[in-house]
Design brief:
It contains five helices and two strands, in the order H-H-E-H-H-H-E. It has about 120 residues and is mainly alpha-helical. It has a two-stranded parallel sheet with strand order 1-2. The longest helix is centred in the middle third of the chain and has 10 residues. It is elongated and about 40 Å long. The protein starts with 7 loop residues before the first helix and ends in a 35-residue tail after the last strand.
C-alpha cells in the first residue's frame, strides 16, 4: 500500500493490513520514521476542533476520535517508496504527481505492477 503521509487519518489500517496480510507499506523516504512513530508531526485535536466552524470538519473530527483516530499505532516495517525521479507538488503535498511521460500522459502501473 502506498501512503501519502503518516498522519493518523492517512495511515489508518496500515499496520493491521501489514501484519494480517503481509502487505508492504510504502511512503516517501522522509515519512518512514514518522510512520514508525519515531516522531509525531500531526495537528492536535484542539486545533481540529478550533477549526470546526468549517463545513464538515467538526463531524469528521468527532468520527475520527470515536474511531480511534488518536491512537498510537506505529507501522512496524514501513519502507521508502522505490520511485524514479522527483515528485511534482505544484499545489502542496496532497496534490503530488509524477511528471508526465514524453507522450504527455501520466505513467501508468498495472494492478500487478511494481507498487
Amino acid at each position: 500500500m502506498l501512503i501519502t503521509h503518516a498522519h493518523n487519518d492517512h495511515l489508518g489500517s496500515a499496520e493491521y493490513l501489514r501484519g494480517a496480510y503481509g502487505m508492504p507499506v510504502y511512503l516517501h523516504e522522509e515519512e518512514v520514521a514518522h510512520a514508525r512513530r519515531e516522531f509525531l508531526h500531526q495537528v492536535s485535536v484542539g486545533t481540529v476542533l478550533k477549526n470546526g466552524w468549517r463545513p464538515g470538519v467538526l463531524p469528521w473530527a468527532v468520527h475520527a476520535i470515536r474511531s480511534g483516530g488518536t491512537a498510537h499505532v506505529p507501522v512496524a516495517s514501513p519502507q521508502p517508496f522505490p520511485a524514479a525521479g522527483p515528485l511534482v507538488c505544484p499545489a502542496g503535498p496532497s496534490r503530488c504527481r509524477r511528471p508526465a511521460t514524453p507522450t504527455g500522459t501520466p505513467p501508468t502501473t498495472s494492478r500487478a505492477g511494481a507498487w
